[in-house]
Write a structure and sequence with these properties.
By secondary structure, the protein is mostly beta strands. It is built from no helices and eleven strands.
């Protein structure tokens, strides 16, 4: 199983980013997926999850209304659209499938 995140970068507060997680080695279309994040000095926390079909999503309260998780099963790809970013969103963002994690992508939001 390989999960490769990309799309993280430095962005100003109020800006937007779209993260991508490219998956291989798993039956992607049968799998629920999730995004987590870990800020410096803090524990890794849940951000959002999506069912195998994309028909059901769940969000952490801190990102609800600003972030959108989606997937494209034909491309084995998971997305996280992040809007209205604030400095508290600064973290390494990880995609997760079962017990597998990607290497993470750094998102830094400047004030």
């Amino acid at each position: 199983v390989q999960l490769v995140e990309s799309g993280g970068r430095l962005v100003q507060a109020g800006g937007s980013l779209r993260l991508t997680c490219a998956a291989s080695g798993l039956t992607f279309s049968d799998s629920a997926m999730a995004w987590f994040r870990q800020a410096p000095g803090k524990e890794r926390e849940f951000v959002a999850s999506i069912s195998w079909s994309g028909g059901s999503t769940t969000y952490a309260e801190s990102v609800k209304g600003r972030f959108t998780i989606s997937r494209e099963n034909a491309k084995n790809t998971l997305y996280l659209q992040m809007n209205n970013l604030n400095p508290e969103d600064t973290a390494v963002y990880y995609c997760k499938w079962r017990m597998y994690w990607g290497q993470g992508t750094q998102v830094t939001v400047s004030s």
